[in-house]
Amino acid sequence: MDTTQLRNRFRDRFGSQGQLYWSPGRINIIGEHTDYNGGFVFPGAVDKGIAAEISANGSRQVRLLALDQAECPFVEFSLDDKEKPQQHWACYIFGVCMEMMKRGVSIGGFNAAFTGDVPLGAGMSSSAALESVFAFAINDMFASGGIDKFELAKVGQATEHNYCGVKCGIMDQFASVFGKKGNLIRLDCRSLEYEYFPFDPKGYRLVLLNSCVKHSLGNEYNERRESCERAVERMAQRWPGIETLRDCTYPMLEAVRPELSDTDYRRAKYVLDEKERVLAVCGALEKGDYETVGKKMYETHWGLSRDYTVSCDELDFLVSIAQECGVTGSRVMGGGFGGCTINLVRETLYDRFISKATRDFARKFGIEPKVYQVVIGDGSSKLQ
After folding, report:
1. 113-127 burial, b for 16+ CB within 10 Å, e for fewer?
2. What is the pLDDT of residues 305-326, one digit of tens each?
3. pLDDT over 70 for what percent of the chain?
4. CA dist., res. 204 & res. 349, Å (int)
């Protein structure tokens, strides 16, 4: 990403020059809504993210310039404030500051400007990129890098929980911090053990189609988490020691089915199905079997659509077009309720698929989906 405009705007606003930092958005090949259920996920950082220029200002004030926020681009708060800012985007940075101070980091006031090319509301986790870039920068500037990467990811997660109202898992922040070029990451969200898997699908492209339905997770996300927790609670009454759906089996779920609503049962079953799919994809990637990877992506989508109910007509339409065109794999990516589909497409089919998807989608919904080719890239870093 070209940071020339960022540097110019920072200098114009604050009259000085700061340090540049970067954190990426992420894709997730498979393993959706499993992270907060103690399961496995399979994300990777991408070559789109958020860049921030930051400099200490010798006060207790944090002054923020958001280049991509037209309505209220400038927010200032004190590190001694008890209440979070009114502007939602500033709550992410306020939360990171508060969480870093909880971990013993002596933060001083700073000036910052930031911008990004990770699409907002597209399921690529722009919020995690924002949290991660500020956590990484604060750690570098005020703690000499003394907070480890795992804790930086937890800072972002705690920010979502405590300041932004989303009870998310750890995946998004983990992928943003730990990303490695040319590799996906299998993360065990219970133990936090992880392993890099080379992702080099020669003859394929990875492309996102943005439905332009902007998602806002909030209550919908939390309500699905509560569904899963209710199922776990019923099983834990019979099998003490069960903490998440990761610990559960199909026979256990069937045993308590009469005690669950149909909605809670279907959501819990989806999570158990997804746990199996992630492990199947691990084996397929080790063999370079991208056709199996794609098959599991489709299974995930229709599970998310029919059982977990986090899709929408626009996303289902795009996935159906992908199947019709013979695309290897396609599914909704991210929390759902809008955003993007992620598509694993053979290069020989790419042009036809993109042409048909954009044409037919525009004919049905009156707007063309946005197309983003993505490359798996590195995680948070200091640029200068």
Report:
1. bbbbebbebbbbbbb
2. 999 999 999 999 999 999 999 9
3. 98
4. 9
CA distances in angstroms from 68 to 49, 89, 101, 219, listed in the order given: 13, 11, 27, 26
Beta bridge partners of 132: none
Starting from the edge strand earliest in sequence, which strands make up the sheet with 61-66, in order?
Answer: 74-78, 61-66, 110-116, 43-56, 19-28, 381-382
| Side chain identity, residue 316 | D
User: Is residue 77 a contact partner of residue 90, using CB atoms and an 8 Å limit?
Assistant: yes
Which residues have CB under 8 Å from 272's CB, separation 6+?
245, 248, 249, 250, 253
Q: In degrees, to the nearest 5, what angle opens at C-alpha 98 toward C-alphas 96 and 103?
A: 95
Among residues 206, 121, 146, 130, the alpha carbon closest in space to that of 377 is found at: 206
Number of H helices, E strands in the chain: 11, 13
- Tell me, yes or no, if 117 is annotated catalytic: no
**Options 35, 172, 316, 378, the catalytic residue:** 172
Name which of 22-26, 219-223, 298-302 the model is least confident about. Answer: 219-223
Is the per-residue pLDDT at 190 higher than 70? yes
Provide the pLDDT for residue 222.
85
Q: What is the DSSP letter of 246?
A: G
pLDDT tens profile 126-160:
999 999 999 999 999 999 999 999 999 999 999 99
Q: Which secondary structure element, helix H or strand E, spans residue 197, and what is its range?
A: strand 194-198
- DSSP assignments along 31-66, one per residue: --S-GGGT-EE-EEEEEEEEEEEEEE-SSSEEEEEE
Q: Could you tell me the pTM of the whole model?
A: 0.87
Q: Which residues pair with 206 in a beta bridge?
A: 344
DSSP 376: B
Which residues lie across from 188 on neighbouring strands? 40
